Structures are given as structure tokens and as C-alpha cells.
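Hello, quick one for you while I still have it in my head. My current little project is about how a certain protein chain folds up. You're getting the sequence in one-letter code plus the fold written as C-alpha cells. Would you mind checking whether the C-alpha cells look sensible for this chain? Here's the protein in full, and shout if anything looks odd to you:
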Amino acid sequence: MSDSPTFFDVHQASRFLHINEKKIYALAKAGKLPGTKVTGKWLFPKRDLEVLIEGQALQTLRKFSTEYVLHRNVLLVAGSDDPAMYMVQGLLHSRYPEFVLFLASLGSGEGLRLLRDGYCHIALSHLYDHETGEYNFPFIEKQFEEPSDIVVLNLFYRSIGFVSRDGVVRSFKEIEDRGLRFINRQAKSGIRHRIDALVAAEGVDEKSLRGFDDEVYTHLDVATAVMSREADTGVAAESAVRFPDLSFYQLFEERFDMLVSKSIFFEKSVQVFIEFVRSPAFSGILQEMRGYDTRQAGKILYPETA
């Protein structure tokens, strides 16, 4: 990849979409992927592929929203990505077989928008406001007409930092000085929000960071990119560092919350999920992983009168 790719070739599109290259060719020839042939080679606009991913996620949310209305046993969760939440899906269903949780990792900002527009039941967010030093609350007050209609419960605190392969990385200035290749997170994600602020605070020009425009959607994607040598470093949750050759340097601990509307707060599926978050099973999952703290798990944080 170039430092700021506008187009992906077949191999890059395959890695980005998690689809094998033969399938990429088949979809492109069938007109089901946005691409064009140049001198005999397929090229795919990066932004068009991102829109495709976002559109497919929204279609999934709309489809299962109808299912929820009919059966009241499907819980749609959208927003920030976290490795532990994928484990939660299976364990929740095993404990409560009549309920199913569907998770769409689209970023904290998009999660809040989907909750506001009624496309999901729970949003996951860790957006940090640098002026107040608070998580999520200032963004709720900006995006929702009636902020007091939203309830915020904590899920956990988690450790976030640099993931690197050849030695520990401690700052963006070091990345710039050493010419390291960075793998970024997508716009509107809570991690990207913090990355942009950290880069600015260090006085580093993002254009001087190799790979700054290369984006992925999950913490595990960051760790995988570093492990496979597609990048030298990136920012991710400590829990994503599952490869023994990777190093981790903590930048901060952050609060990770769930947001739900008061109008459905007492729906059985929502209450089952909250009960699970407050259970020893949920704490047990996090204790087996790295970089989590459950000191406020399940506690209502907002509004104060809730």
C-alpha cells in the first residue's frame, strides 16, 4: 500500500473486506463491487468499499430491527469495537437461549447516531471530551434533543496504547522520527478521536506519519496488521495484543459505556443484558483477558437522577 491509498488492488481489497481474492474477482466481474479495470488490473476505490461496509451493517441493523419488533428477543448493539464483546455474544446466548445479541462495530460516533435514529437498542461508546475530561455525557447532550431520555451504564474500563512489533513505541513523535508505518482507526471511532487529539498535543503533523490514512475497523485488525508487518505500530486495546511477538505501551485507561433509551430500558432483553453485565460471568470473561477493570460494571452513570 502507498502511505495514503485512494485505490486498492485485488490483494488489498481482499484484506480490507476479509474476502478471498477469487471471491473479489467474482464480485467485481458481476458488478457487485465498486471497481474498475485499468490496464488489465482491477482497482477498487477505498472510500467506496468503506461505504459498502457501512451500508451492509445498516441493512443488517434494519433487518433485525423488524425481527425485534415481532419477537422482542433480539438485541441490536452498535458502536465502538472491543474484543471482549465478541465473547459476550456467545456466552449471553448460552445463558439465555431465548435472547440473541447482534453486534455492529461501526465506531462510537456512529453508534450514538444509530441510537438517536432508532436503528439500534444499545450503543457502545467511549467518546472523550477534552474540555470537560468526561466520557460520553457531553456528546449525548449535543446529539439528543432530550438527553435525559438516555441512560448510561458502565461496562468496564480498559487499557489503550501503542501496539508494536520491533521494540516498544511510546509516542507519535517517535513514530515520525523513526519513519515507522502507522495503521489507523476509522473516522468517528472513539479511538480515532483520541488519536487525533494525541497527535495534535504532541505537535506532530499527521501528514508526516506514514500510513496515517490507512484505516481499519477493529482493535484486532490493528494487532493483525502489525503482526503481519503491514504496519509497524498502531493504537489498540491491550486485550487485542494476543501475539507473543507484539509489545504494548499504555497511553491511557478509558471508560467504556453502554447507552440505552429510557423508553426500552425495562424491556426484558435489555434487562437480561444488564443483568449479565452485573454477573460474575461477565467479570470472569474480562479477568481472563488483559487490560480490563470492572470496578463500575453495570452501574448507572447518567443521568444522575436515573
